[in-house]
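Now for our target.
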Amino acid sequence: MASAKTVQIPQALPEDPDPQALAAEILRVLRYRVGKDTTVATRYDWLTASIQVVRDRVIDHWMEATKEAYDRQEKRVYYLSLEFLIGRLMRDAFSNLGMMETMRQALVSLGVDLDAIAQLEPDAALGNGGLGRLAACFMESMATVDIPAHGYGIRYANGMFRQEIQDGWQVELPETWLDHGNPWEFERRERAFEVGFGGSVESVTDKDGRLERHVWKPGERVLAVAYDTPVVGWRANRVNTLRLWSGMPVDPILLDKFNAGDHMGALAESNKADALSRVLYPADSHKEGQELRLRQEYFFSSASLQDILQRHLSQYGDLGSLPDKAAIHLNDTHPAVAVPELMRLLMDVHGIDFDQAWDITRRTFGYTNHTLLPEALESWPVPLFERLLPRHMQIVYAINAAVLLEARATGRFNGDQIARISLIQENGDRRVRMGNLAFVGSHSINGVSALHTELMKQTVFADLHSLYPNRINNKTNGITPRRWLFQCNPGLTELARETIGDRFLDDIEAIHDLDRFAEDAGFRDKFAAVKRANKERLATLVAERLGIKVDPSALFDIQIKRIHEYKRQLLNILEAIALYDQIRSHPERDWVPRVKFFGGKAAPSYHNAKLIIKLANDVAKVINGDPSVRGLLKVVFVPNYNVSAAEVMMPAADLSEQISTAGMEASGTGNMKFALNGALTIGTLDGANVEIRERVGDDNIFIFGLKADEVAERRANGYQPRAIIEGSRELSQAIAAVSSGVFSPDDPDRYRDLMNGLYDSDWFMVAADFDAYAAAQRSIDDVWRDSPAWYARAIRNVARVGWFSSDRTIREYAKDIWNVPA
């Protein structure tokens, strides 16, 4: 991957040695820890040695921060998330410690290029999309604003998958990021906890026959073993811990079965344990996948809670003080099973009665909701839940009884409302509603953008909000500027430093001082030169990876995110087809050269999403190979989109595609990253787009399409997409071309069902918004032709989005939810 020169950040740690001394230290580590000398050392060896030299300094800060938190009896935050999309860590650590330039000089003296070895570090395959990247930004910001915190998740050996594109189709392959080991992590075998599944529950009574407690006797047991990764805050303000759990069998091999010839049976327990930390999001289109996913969620939630309680008891000796010393946060519904698990541990293991345990639980947990999509608000079949977690099913029923009796006692809820409040879904197959469970088990429930939070109150949690009107609050998402500006866009960072000084490095909102330079022609020229260099870097990457040549002078129009119908990559593709037809039909017009970039993974069992990837590649093949287009339009799908790819693509973007169906994107953080790097947004009034528009101004963003309430109204009143399609010449022609096989001559019917879906239902309002979207794109062409006006708008975007920092978001969490100083 092409690289950019890293900006020289002022040194944070004056005790660091000079480059010559650092070079000597690297050589010592290379010899005595890696076991190589300079004559045989590979680039991987130099990478490992460089990381370990810096890691030693991280460890000093890490131990100091841990000791201080203990000595001061500081309240800790525990962030439970099924994903942590941390990407590569080397630049994070080097930059946040203030050692980047010193390390660069030291390595140059040894004949090693830091940028070259940095690209060898694999992206940690610990997440998929925005949920995991947000968790990573939050961990870095908690360290930066000096909050003692642990992140808890799973150490996936193979991640979700590595995406390859073969003949235009997504192919899923194992992500082998741990093949060369992970020099950042530390195995903590002493922090291993048993996690059980299945079995039975027994009641223990006293001599008078009164119930004393319940005893769960699991039928299966596995070990959760901790692996710790230090998370360095900016200028090493604090180093926190990301603790990830790996599954191991209690008994690695059953020798009696092995010796009896049952070799597979002898390894069955080992295989089950290994599966718990093998793959992120196993396909849940079959029962086995659903069961594994529930096992994973309970596995890491139980291990994390056992770890938290053990740490708390060792320091304070009393679990009654848990809410005062620990804030446990549930990042979406994946760790919601932690609610009954904490109740089980408090009651069954530590002898606390139900009422006190419920009070402790609710005061300890907070819950962030990330979606309004019903299918993403997890629910589990009662038989599955009860078979895997029989004691937890009992506790869920007990919690449900307490909540429903409380609701009935108010006299304000009818039968339908009570049914919606219930933790058990009764219509159809009986299921445990994990969103409702997380809601009732937490003292705070937050949305992640202003619009999303209001829609939560009106839709998915309307009745629970009525029962508990003070629990829902908003915490608009943010991004860490260290990775998403300083590291990924050093040219823009250096230009900002030259222009307004260094204050924004520590307070990103100070970047607003750039606003007054939007009309400065000299500054605009420098800004345009930075953007051009970033586009050339992306063009080089595309040429090297895909063999596609793109012109950096063209408008770079980028949509990179998880492939899902509500995110509407299909709308973008259909508009590209319409534009293609217009360019061919009207070659005399002054068309703006444009490159449309796509990137993202589709869930392995999500047929339509995978079909959309294939369509994007089929369309790209036709358009890119048509000489009549004269290079005015190109379409590029970048495979295996991840954090490292984003770090190249976002600084290169001229236009950021944020075009989800209004009311369906909780927030988005890609929109913030693009804007901070000088891209203009085309988008609906959805998620954080609403607040971005408020910050950057109507003239510096391109808004189109239906609003959330208009989408809901059309659906309620019998939306008829066929009439809209037939009334739009460009859309109808584009759909007809796709449906008839113009882009799939090898299989003319490939996309017929996908296109028929637009005529029949069009749940995601592609047809309804198409003409408005196409018109917005042509207005973008008009602005692009006026280069000074375009760059003035881009500069205003950079200057006005500093508020969307995860530092600000975390300070709001700390004040309003966790009750910790920041």
Q: What stands out?
A: The longest strand covers residues 220-232. Confidence is low (pLDDT under 50) at residues 8-15. The chain has three domains: 11-72+95-119, 73-87+123-477+810-818, 488-804. Residues 488-804 form a domain with the Rossmann fold fold (CATH 3.40.50.2000).
